[in-house]
Design goal:
The chain is of the alpha/beta class. The chain is built from eight helices and nine strands. Strand 7, helix 7 and strand 8 form a beta-alpha-beta unit. Helix 7 runs parallel beside helix 8.
Length: 236
């Protein structure tokens, strides 16, 4: 004969089992079957147009919200409470006399990027007109020593990113006298000779020479002469 305690235990087990069954069925009902659909041609064309557009990073008056906008820079003449702090060129075709002339008059501009575009040395003559820009991003472009010669002494340039470019030791010697405090040379043909040239940059505080021809000995010599400069190098 079942006792009162046994009946209570059986009831609890039954309720627990019922809860598990209900929970399983509910979770199963929440599984969504993936929907496969074809992206309309108009949407694809719109996305391609957006990718070709110059992107402007806009900073509002209160400097709380930074975001990308794809708009005509002439619009900023009608919006005095908004300033452009970052401009990113998405193709080499965008580097024209007109586009550079618009960029170089922007006040408060912090950085201009040409990241992963087929920018060549002939484009650097126009880029060199951006005398008000403290940071240039030329990572993974086609720039060589000849192009670097046109950019080396930009008066306000303090950050220069040349990762994956064709810059060599010879080009780095052109940077002597620059005001650079940050220089990125990841995945370039730079060697210890170029590193020695960079030791002559008095304001240099951060340097990246990973995946280059720089040796452990070269890094040690650089650190001895430039203790205040942090250098990223390959682990040996």
């Amino acid at each position: 004969m079942l006792t009162r305690r046994s009946i209570v235990l059986v009831a609890i087990m039954f309720v627990g089992f019922a809860v598990l069954v209900i929970s399983y069925k509910w979770r199963k009902s929440q599984v969504k079957v993936p929907v496969v659909y074809e992206v309309p041609k108009e949407v694809i064309e719109q996305r391609d147009a957006e990718k070709r557009a110059v992107r402007w990073l806009v900073e509002r008056e209160v400097r709380l919200k930074d975001h990308f906008r794809e708009i005509d820079p002439d619009d900023f003449a009608r919006q005095p409470h908004v300033s452009v702090v970052h401009v990113e060129f998405l193709s080499a075709d965008q580097v024209t006399v007109e586009s550079i002339s618009r960029v170089k008059i922007l006040s408060g501009l912090r950085t201009v990027s040409f990241y992963d575009t087929p920018i060549k040395d002939e484009h650097t003559a126009l880029i060199a007109e951006l005398t008000n820009v403290p940071e240039l991003n030329l990572n993974f472009t086609e720039v060589t020593d000849a192009g670097l010669a046109k950019l080396a002494l930009l008066p306000d340039l303090s950050i220069l990113r040349l990762n994956g470019t064709h810059v060599t030791d010879e080009g780095l010697s052109l940077l002597r006298g620059s005001k650079l405090h940050t220089l990125s040379l990841f995945d370039t043909a730079v060697t210890d000779n170029g590193l020695a040239e960079l030791g002559k940059l008095p304001q240099l505080l951060m340097l990246d020479v990973q995946k280059t021809g720089v040796t452990p000995e070269g890094v040690s010599r650089f650190r001895e002469s430039r203790a205040r400069c942090f250098i990223y190098s390959d682990p040996y």
